[in-house]
Design goal:
With 383 residues, the chain is of the alpha+beta class. The protein has a single domain, classed as 3-Layer(aba) Sandwich (Beta-lactamase). It is built from twelve helices and 15 strands. The strands form four sheets. Strands 1, 2, 3, 4, 11, 12, 13 and 14 form an eight-stranded antiparallel sheet that branches. A three-stranded antiparallel sheet has the order 5-8-6.
C-alpha cells in the first residue's frame, strides 16, 4: 500500500479517490495533486517515492522537473505585461528586439510565437549545452535564423525556441530574464515553489525522474520532433542520465524557459489560481478580458511537418480544452503539460487552479492527470 499524505475538502473527495487509484492502476512512483477553487486550496495530496534509488518519500514540499509546463509560466508573464500595456502581442517582435528583424522575421509577432506559428520550431545552428545555458548564444542563433515557412500560415510545436524567444522579449522589456521576472513579478509575493532556473539551495527538495518500462523509442536524432525537444542534440531526451539529462542539476539550474521549469503541484496550481481568481483574497493576476484573449484558438489540426492531428488546440501560449487531447473543464480553461505526465491549468469560469506532477515519465497517452481532472469536473458540476 502506497503511503499518501495531505487532505481534500469533503466536496472534492472524488479527486482524492482518483489519486489513490492512480497508484493502484498505473506505474506510479511518486506524485502530487493540488486544486484551488474560489481562491482557496481544496485539495493538496502527495504520495509515493521521490527517489527510487534511496526510497526517499514524496513530501508536501517535494518539487520535480515539469518540462513544458514552463511555457504556461512564461505565457502568464507575457500576458501580464500585455495587460499592463508594456507588451503588444500583435506588434512585431522587432519593436522590442530590433536585432530579431533579419532573414524574413520582420513581421513575426509575439502572438505568432505563442501560437507556435512563427516558423521557428528549430534552429539551424547547432549549439552546445554550455552555449545554451549562457542564454546569449541562443538569442544570437534566433536572430540569424530564417523561418521554415511564411510566419502565421502554419503551426509546429516550437519546443525550446518558444521559451527563449518569448523570454528575450520579456528581457528586453523588463531587463530581467523570464525566470527572474516571474519570481519578482509573481512568485516571490505568492510564495510559489516554482522556478525556471532552480536555485541551488532548493535542490534538496527535488524528486528524481524515472522512466516507465516499455516507453516507445524516439525517432532518429535528425528527425524534426527530436531536434525540437533536444535542441539539435544538446539535451538528452527522453533519457534522464547525466550529464545533460533531466535529472542534471546543471540543466535544472539554468534558465531553459521552454521546458526547464521545476515546481511542486501547489506551486503550479497556485500560479493558475492566482491568474484566474487570486489566492486567499488577493486580486487576480489576469483580467477576464486577458483570459478571453489567451483562450482564442490560434492553432489546431495537422502541423506544418504533417505530424498527425492528436487533437491539441493552442491559444496564445496555452493548450486549450479539447476532448481528445488534454480535456480540461471548458472553454475558459488554459494550461500546459509537461513530458512524462505533468499538467497544470486554470479556468476562471469554474474558478479553478489545478496541477498534477509526478516523477514516473509514462509518455503520450498517459491518463493519470486526465483521470484526476474528470473527477474534479464531477465534483464541480455535482448538484
Amino acid at each position: 500500500m502506497v503511503k499518501h499524505g495531505g487532505w481534500a475538502d469533503e466536496r472534492f473527495g472524488a479527486v482524492a479517490d482518483a489519486f489513490s487509484r492512480n497508484f493502484a492502476d498505473f506505474d506510479e512512483l511518486g506524485a502530487a495533486v493540488t486544486v484551488f477553487a474560489g481562491g482557496r486550496e481544496v485539495v493538496d495530496l502527495w504520495g509515493g517515492v521521490a527517489d527510487e534509488r534511496s526510497g526517499r518519500p514524496w513530501e508536501q514540499d517535494t518539487i520535480v522537473p515539469v518540462f513544458s509546463c514552463a511555457k504556461g509560466v512564461v505565457s502568464i508573464c507575457a500576458h501580464l505585461l500585455a495587460q499592463r500595456g508594456r507588451l503588444d502581442l500583435d506588434a512585431p517582435v522587432a519593436r522590442y528586439w530590433p536585432e530579431f528583424a533579419r532573414g524574413g522575421k520582420e513581421a513575426i509577432t509575439t502572438r505568432m510565437v505563442l501560437g507556435h506559428r512563427a516558423g521557428l520550431p528549430v534552429l539551424d545552428r547547432v549549439l552546445s549545452f554550455e552555449e545554451i545555458v549562457q542564454w546569449t548564444p541562443v538569442i544570437r542563433a534566433i536572430e540569424e535564423q530564417e523561418p521554415l515557412w511564411e510566419p502565421g500560415t502554419a503551426h509546429e510545436y516550437h519546443g525550446h525556441v518558444f521559451g527563449f524567444l518569448v523570454g528575450e522579449v520579456i528581457r528586453r522589456i523588463t531587463g530581467l530574464t523570464p525566470g527572474a521576472y516571474f519570481r519578482k513579478a509573481i512568485a516571490d509575493d505568492l510564495g510559489l515553489s516554482t522556478w525556471i532556473g532552480l536555485p541551488q539551495d532548493e535542490a534538496g527538495r527535488l524528486a528524481r525522474l524515472a522512466e516507465a518500462e516499455g516507453r516507445p523509442p524516439m525517432p532518429g536524432p535528425e528527425s524534426l520532433p527530436v531536434r525540437i525537444v533536444t535542441m539539435n542534440g544538446a539535451f538528452v531526451f527522453p533519457g534522464l542520465s547525466e550529464p545533460h539529462g533531466w535529472n542534471d542539476l546543471a540543466l535544472l539550474g539554468a534558465e531553459i524557459p521552454g521546458a526547464g521549469a521545476v515546481s511542486s503541484a501547489s506551486g503550479l496550481a497556485g500560479l493558475y489560481a492566482a491568474a484566474v481568481t487570486g489566492v486567499d483574497g488577493s486580486a487576480r493576476l489576469l483580467t477576464p478580458d486577458t483570459v478571453t484573449d489567451a483562450v482564442r484558438e490560434l492553432s489546431s489540426g495537422a502541423s506544418w511537418s504533417g505530424f498527425p492531428d492528436l487533437g491539441a488546440r493552442w491559444g496564445s501560449g496555452f493548450l486549450l480544452d479539447g476532448p481528445r487531447f488534454r480535456p480540461m473543464l471548458g472553454a475558459r480553461s488554459f494550461g500546459n503539460d509537461g513530458a512524462g505526465g505533468q499538467f497544470a491549468f486554470g479556468d476562471d469560469e469554474f474558478g479553478v487552479g489545478f496541477a498534477y506532477v509526478a516523477n514516473r515519465m509514462i509518455g503520450h497517452g498517459d491518463a493519470r492527470a486526465n483521470r484526476l481532472i474528470a473527477a474534479l469536473r464531477e465534483c464541480l458540476t455535482a448538484v
